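Much of our argument rests on the idea that a fold can be written as discrete symbols. The amino acid sequence and the backbone structure tokens for this protein are reproduced below:

___
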Amino acid sequence: MDISEVMRRHREALSMTQSDLADTVGVDKRQIRRYEAGETQPTLPVAAAIARAFGITIDELAGEDTHRIDLTGEWWAVWQTFKDGEEVIAPQRVEMTQSGNTIQISSTTRGVAPEGGGYLWRGELKLWDNEILLGWYVASEAAVRAKGTMYFLVHRHGINLTGRWVGLSYDGPITTGWAVMAKDEQEAIALLTTIKQEGSDSND
């Protein structure tokens, strides 16, 4: 893949316009258009600024294969949440779009009915060393004030994620619970059961 295609794909994955990228990098929009059309190549300082904007290396911008785990796609997320002091296990579908080390994530189902505390949300995660995902989430619905952070350990083959969330919820200003993601709903539920048990055992 050449630099023009890499630029276009990463820009679109981050929902950036050519104008957005031009403003971030500090060049004219026409220059970005020329890069993406393959009419010219960016100078090294401009290439470095474009790579930073995308959260990738210059090697990746140039189309080099760096063996980075790609988490783009549809996943099943299962959350350990609480309402009125009672545990609620909430599975829901989420969509992840990765550009370099940056991942945009959004829920596509609530998992739990609104009256039970379910809501749609979106967020952003950063991938570190193909091993850790760290980021934030916020409710997409104006009536819901939920927001917080997520921390996941990435399976070495990228097949699942295990971790915790911390944030605002119905049961208090700061609450936390276990969280997992997998490609299959039942696998995700089973994984959450396992890490809950392991966490309970370590506290005994």
Remarks:
- The CA atoms of residues 89 and 96 lie 21 Å apart.
